[in-house]
Amino acid sequence: MAVLLTPRAARAQHLEASGGGTVTVGDTVTIVLRAILPAGATIAADPHPRDSLPNSVRLLAMDTLPRAPDGARRYRARIAFFQTGSLTSPAFAVGYRRAGEEVPDSIVSGAVLVTVTPTLPDTAVAMRDIRPIASLGGAAAGASRWWIAAIAVLIAAAAAAVALRSRRRPRAAMPAAPAAPPLGAYEAARRHLVALASSALIGSDVAAFYDDVTDALRRYLEAEFGIPAVHRTTPELLRVLPPALAETEAATSAALGEADFVKFARLRPSADTARAFLAGAVALLDQWHDAALMPNAAEEADALR
């Protein structure tokens, strides 16, 4: 258990972090946060990572737990690591306000040790080099030379016949097909989602299917609104959604959150559930597109850029 106290009234308030352990790459790691606040203080901001998370760490969920018997507020963070070795969890921060004060303060947790092991065992045998083909000797070598000479003569004769035929019958020049106009961000994303309805991944690899659906949604957001959506976690993406998409925040959080559980928590929904998720993703994309067509949406996108 690691505890980091703020310099201001360190004895009165602090944030404890416990959990961790040994997991494999991509497994869910549960960290329990226990916040002790001064008497009369109120929560100003829910627990969140103090610093930006690296690409190898994903915050899957942050849940509020019932209070402890001593009145401490408790939370449960679920994270996943995609790098092996002895690692530490991110530090979390909780914002609060003292009774009668307007300026918020915060408490910060320490890091929890997590050991992440690879999915392949260390005893995996390396592939051996391919041995060279042994050369033929004796009579077999002489016979092989005759066969090689005969094949070479046949190849040369076939090449000469093709060349003569091409001279007698000149090929008509094929007219160049007109280049199709490039698809817009919305048309490309919607065409990709519609094509996924007949994808074999629904029955064979539902995790990859969910990943393809959310990747199409994230790439549309990045192309249409200029926000870095592809490589951000779901909580990070929700915090930078443009105001034009404010009415879709709940649907966006539900769709991306469901995909996170499939990808990181190893949830395996049925084929019917996956098809319903795809239909919801198409509807969400249409909502985003309608919002982008609003008169003030372009100005908001330019301000975000």
Strand order in space, largest sheet: 1-2-4-7-6
What is the 3D form? Answer: elongated
Counted by DSSP, the helix tally is 8
Order of helices and strands: EEEEEEEEEEEHHHHHHHH
Structural class label:
alpha+beta
* Low-pLDDT residue intervals, each spanning 5 or more residues: 1-11, 124-136
* End-to-end gap: 41 Å
In total, the number of strands is 11
% residues in beta strands: 15-25%
Number of domains: 2
Mean pLDDT: 80
Q: Can you give the helix content as a percent range?
A: 25-40%
Structural Rg: 30 Å
Task: Give a quick account of the main beta sheet: strands, pairing sense, barrel closure.
Answer: 5 strands, antiparallel
Could you walk me through the main structural features you see in this protein, from its secondary elements to its overall organization?
The structure is a single chain. The protein is of the alpha+beta class and 305 residues long. It folds into 2 domains: 2-117, Immunoglobulin-like, CATH 2.60.40; 185-304. The chain is 39% helix and 22% strand. It is built from 8 helices and 11 strands. The protein has helices spanning 138-168, 185-196, 201-204, 206-225, 234-239, 249-264, 271-292, 297-304; strands spanning 2-4, 14-19, 21-24, 28-36, 42-49, 57-65, 73-81, 85-88, 92-97, 105-108, 113-117. The chain has a 5-stranded antiparallel beta sheet. Helix 2 (185-196) runs antiparallel to helix 7, helix 4 (206-225) runs antiparallel to helix 6 and helix 4 (206-225) packs parallel to helix 7 (271-292). The longest helix is centred in the middle third of the chain and has 31 residues, at 138-168. The protein is elongated, with a radius of gyration of 30 Å. It starts with a strand and ends with a helix.
